[in-house]
Design a protein that fits this description.
This protein has 293 residues and is an all-alpha fold. The two termini are 28 Å apart. The longest helix has 37 residues. The protein is elongated. The protein has eleven helices and no strands.
């Protein structure tokens, strides 16, 4: 009979009647959820509408202050900053989804395998994770750029590889806690193999841990994409990017003091929202913290 271990929260907590009632009273969850929803809405709206074309240049009206025509002003090429930020949200979400997806699928699979097999398999996977963590996303992107050239694809691959060891370690630690439970021994006594136990008992019981980690790594992926674009290694022109906007704005701070504020604040709010959402989910899905609250 399956049970939820005290040390490993279960995604089944999402289905209990009091979850959403508690969630609406959790400040971090509410604030993070609102900021994350605004990020998603900005990307969705940009697919069908923007105040101005983000690719239309108007040099005569460059570096304009915020006005009724241009809500957040214009950049050095006369492009509407609000439109650039809206479209830039798409690139950030795209990088986050794919990069975190790579880390989740590969890392979780390796972590589950390490917990199920133990021995030399676990040791080899953990040493691979240690080796991978020696190459941060930015350093990996620089090396890939030197070989394959700058671009969003290489940035996604670099950030995805950076996420793999983190997911592998967290999955392995959480799965080990589940494998030590009595109902796992009962499942083995019933003749179930390691794969069946992993899919039917281990993975469902660690899914909440992975959900929380996804939100946190998503925030880190957005920040990494902005950093890579700032260095010219991420999203390439003419595709708008928050990081590249910030890089362009820093050279124009005396001519347009407000210009760097908008992309910087956008990156900050997006990362803050996802981090707060992750903290809120951690508190709400962890049975020990839920009881304490």
């Amino acid at each position: 009979m399956s049970a939820v271990p005290a040390a490993v929260p279960s995604a089944a907590a999402l289905r209990i009647p009091g979850f959403w009632r508690r969630a609406l009273h959790h400040r971090s969850f509410v604030v993070g959820g609102v900021l994350t929803l605004l990020l998603l809405l900005a990307a969705a709206i940009s697919l069908v509408w923007t105040p101005w074309s983000p690719y239309e240049m108007d040099i005569a009206n460059k570096l304009q202050n915020p006005s009724a025509a241009h809500w957040l002003g214009t950049d050095a090429y006369g492009r509407d900053v609000a439109s650039l930020l809206l479209v830039g949200a798409r690139a950030s979400i795209l990088v986050g989804v794919i990069a975190v997806g790579i880390g989740l699928v590969v890392g979780a699979a390796l972590g589950l395998l390490a917990a199920a097999r133990r021995g030399w398999v676990e040791e080899a996977i953990m040493r691979f994770a240690d080796f991978s963590m020696a190459f941060p996303a930015i350093l990996s992107a620089i090396m890939m750029t030197a070989v394959f050239g700058a671009g969003i694809v290489n940035a996604i691959i670099a950030i995805g590889i950076y996420n793999i060891p983190t997911f592998a370690r967290i999955t392995r630690a959480s799965a080990n806690a589940v494998w030590s439970r009595e109902y796992i021994s009962a499942a083995r006594a019933c003749g179930k193999g390691s794969f069946a136990i992993t899919m039917q008992h281990v993975l469902p019981n660690i899914s909440a841990v992975l959900i929380v980690q996804i939100t946190i790594r998503f925030a880190i992926a957005i920040l990494a994409e902005a950093a890579l674009s700032y260095l010219g290694l991420g999203t390439q022109p003419p595709q708008p990017s928050w990081g590249r906007l910030l890089a362009e704005a820093q050279t124009l701070m005396y001519q347009a003091p407000l210009f760097p504020v908008f992309p910087g604040a956008t990156i900050m709010l997006a990362v803050l929202g996802l981090n707060l959402l992750g903290d809120g989910l951690r508190d709400l899905l962890d049975p020990r913290l839920a009881r304490a609250r």
